[in-house]
Amino acid sequence: MPRYKPQVRGAMFLPVVLSEQLVPGSFAFALNLLVDEELDLSALDARFRNEAVGASAYDPRVLLKIVLLGYSRGLVSSRQLERACEHDIQFIAISGDSHPSHAQLAKFVSSLGPQIKALFHQVLLTCDAQGLIGRELFAIDGVKLPANASKERSGTHAELLHRARRLEKAADKIVSLHQAQDSRTGAPGEEALDARRQQQRVDALRREAQRTREFLSTTPARRNRKGQELKTNITDPDSAKMATSKGVIQGYAAQATVDAAHQLIVAADVTGSGSEQAMLLPMVEQARPFASAQTLHTADAGYHSDANVQALHERDIPALIADNQMRQRDERFKDQAPHKAKPDPLYDKQPTGQDKPLKRFGPADFRFDPQARTATCPAGQTLYSTGAIYRVGSKGLRREDFKARPSDCGGCHLRAQCLRHPERTPARKVSLFHGREFNAQDPSQCMRQAIDSPRGRSLYSQRIATVEPVFANLRHNKRLSRFTLRGLSKVGTQWQLFCLVHNIEKLAHSGWRP
């Protein structure tokens, strides 16, 4: 038999130098140096008044290190952070072998709101001194994340009142059904257990109904800028229902402005609304301390409005904000119509055994000849212009109508697919919308002209490659799948903490040393 050296599997006492566990170049090393030697945390120290009396407190620097190191590893729960401080050597090293409880960690994160923006700004100053902010192009975008609230408890005041009544009605129905039941032959213990479960269900329904009524009596209705009532949520009134590619969620839209040089987040905020138009100017203002007069701000069509473009023009801020028709004007997408018309094999809600409705021909199925001012229908017949060009709305759109001869449409074999009412419509009419008359004094038209130019398309195409990897890092690598706190202020704090982790990670990878 061969002989091998013995292996010890039991407990051992090993000498550990905690400072050596923070390896230079790692995130933990950069975080430790940054908090201890660069950041001014006097605002956090000012919260304590225990110089002469009172128990000693955990150093807020230690708590900040634990939270940021935990977020960098996807540990969001305060109980996870507490366990890491007891068993993970890097957490033990960065906390100086202190063991704060989960309650202390949760309280620290919840109360960090007033100081988080100052900390975020200080980290950006350090990154700027390292040369990580290029100031050439900023990309603004948002990501919708679920809140710590149920969307079933969301609705207008009328809808929530209706839900409370339904809950009370369901509780009364359970009670009446239970009272009407005949005596069963089961054992007395089983009957008592069943009655206790039903009573627990009734109590839960009535508590939920009472909670809903109390919320309605103490919380005013949310309204938008037009005075229309918005849906609110009982658990987290600041959150909102939002449509995403994975369905409707109850959540927040987290915003970020990212510099293109090293994908550093220069501004971060959250909004409890699915519409992001109102967040464009605040995000531009937050990023202004780290922008220059030549910094180009880019954003997708979700941020576009004539008022936003006008405000950027008045402030002389270079920007490329896409509008909803940008891709329709791009000749690179002119051949996408046949592919978009194809059915999605993974998403077809048409009931089996039923024929799909006949698709009616639209303007895209007609060929227009601007020189002859004619149009050709799918059957090959010619439609002639009525001779007039009409202005549509106040944005400069022009419309030209083309009409077919009744004799051409009368016996056409595609009549049922071409006319909305083939039994009474004599001939098809189709409209062509011409481009707007360019007005150099209109900022929105100037924006469209700039973004449609070859240089504008080249610059705007950098937006998605700048901001989307940042969201991918936070959502996938840092496991930010949802917010765990409630309220706009606390959710904003948590989002900025994750953005801090991203920026410190960039600082660590740059080889920074103070």
TrEMBL record:
<dbReference type="Pfam" id="PF05598">
    <property type="entry name" value="DUF772"/>
</dbReference>
<dbReference type="InterPro" id="IPR008490">
    <property type="entry name" value="Transposase_InsH_N"/>
</dbReference>
<feature type="domain" description="Transposase InsH N-terminal">
    <location>
        <begin position="21"/>
        <end position="109"/>
    </location>
</feature>
<feature type="domain" description="Transposase DDE">
    <location>
        <begin position="376"/>
        <end position="508"/>
    </location>
</feature>
<dbReference type="InterPro" id="IPR025668">
    <property type="entry name" value="Tnp_DDE_dom"/>
</dbReference>
<dbReference type="InterPro" id="IPR047629">
    <property type="entry name" value="IS1182_transpos"/>
</dbReference>
<feature type="compositionally biased region" description="Basic and acidic residues">
    <location>
        <begin position="329"/>
        <end position="347"/>
    </location>
</feature>
<dbReference type="Pfam" id="PF13751">
    <property type="entry name" value="DDE_Tnp_1_6"/>
</dbReference>
<protein>
    <submittedName>
        <fullName>IS4 family transposase</fullName>
    </submittedName>
</protein>
<feature type="region of interest" description="Disordered">
    <location>
        <begin position="211"/>
        <end position="241"/>
    </location>
</feature>
<feature type="region of interest" description="Disordered">
    <location>
        <begin position="329"/>
        <end position="362"/>
    </location>
</feature>
